[in-house]
Amino acid sequence: MSKKKKKKTKVVAMPQSEATKIRSRARNLKIDKCYITGDWEEAREGQLIVTRRHTNDNLTVGFFLIDFALLGVKDTFYKFNILESELDETMESIADMAEIDYNMAHNIVWGAVEYAEDFGFNPHKDFKISQYILEEDDDNIPLIDIEFGLDGKPTVFCDDANLRTKEITHLEKTIGRENFNVMDIGNVDDYDLDDEFEDMENHELDEDIQSYLMPGWNDDIEEMGVLEWDNNQMEEFLKKDLEDMSIRILQYFIDKVFLELHKEIPDIDAFEVVTGKSEYNSLLNNHNEIFDNNDFALAESYFKVLAPENSLEIVLNEIFTKHSDSFDFLFAGLNIAASHKDSEDILLTYCKKLISLFPLRIEAVYFMAVILYASNRMDEIKEFMDNKATIYEYCKKDEVSRHELELFSGIWLMYFLDKEDLIGAEHYYQVFDVVCEPDDVFAKILIQRNILMKMDDLQGFPIS
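Above: the chain sequence. Below: its structure as tokens.
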């Protein structure tokens, strides 16, 4: 219930189980604009981008590096539900991108895959995911004749950095040296799409961040056999302590649970439902209240001095009497008190006092909701919040931070989970999943575990 004091880290993008979402959702999104580098026909290589638009105007994007001469989809990656401005910034860094229609983009990518496979070369490993941003390759898409190879032959482009000896040796054995070309393009570094989009990919995390994040943020769930788990294996996983849980595994099953619901849920903008504003971007800002770790340390000292000889209520009363003007100090005291046994009623009493002193600090309401959720008393949180299920209605502020929206979504998500109403919870989870602060791993993993543990008593839990 209480959080450990967290180490300050720089902001990085947490994994969001994009693969599962793209597999299941991407083809239900409307195809939007597609682009390719303008010199692709002459260069025999091109960067191709396919976008799909969400109802909230965000984009899901597939990036494909196409080698028209031989290797097909040489590199690829994907981004789910990003702001259009994020794509615009990336587009500005790539010279000479031209818009093409989807049919052309489809024929280029799938044609490149087929051409490469004819000579024994498979697409990049991540194509098994990014292919779902494309339509299925069937007769519904008009066939366009795209020229692959060079001068009628498959062609290996090599340079001093990459002599392509593996590819050349393979072709010599399979089709014979006279049936393919080799072209030396000089001392040029082998192109890597990941380098071009380094800022968007965030592949590398520094050691401090790696040591802070929960285990399993980059687990390969396919290699671990998670996709074939039965209910017994899932039950064993849920028995693990929070710090031992794999984020990837949690997110895979959470996505699977909610994706099943999309057969029943109409396509509604979750942000509009949760914020109560059709133009919700105007409601959000980037400002977050900064928690002062000095207050946490000072509150700890109170407990060390007073707790051995006094009740928990006396310690909290001392803190609230002497520091009623400091939210951080009082909130730190509540977090420390939460580690004490049989403290539920006392915590709720002082949590309500904190909210009365600082009615706009939603952290305290979230703290109270966690306590009530753990004791199956979520009806009290609904009553306490006066049934205000949008953050604009609840806060009555012109601007809220992403962190406030995260906590507000978490409160109502816990409420609907307590009522075993997954359809009601779905919109709040969507927003929580998107805006959860990158360093707030505890909140995310706690919510995800709670969702899965509620599945045991519900029909249709899509595990086996």
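The first strand starts at residue 30 and ends at 37.
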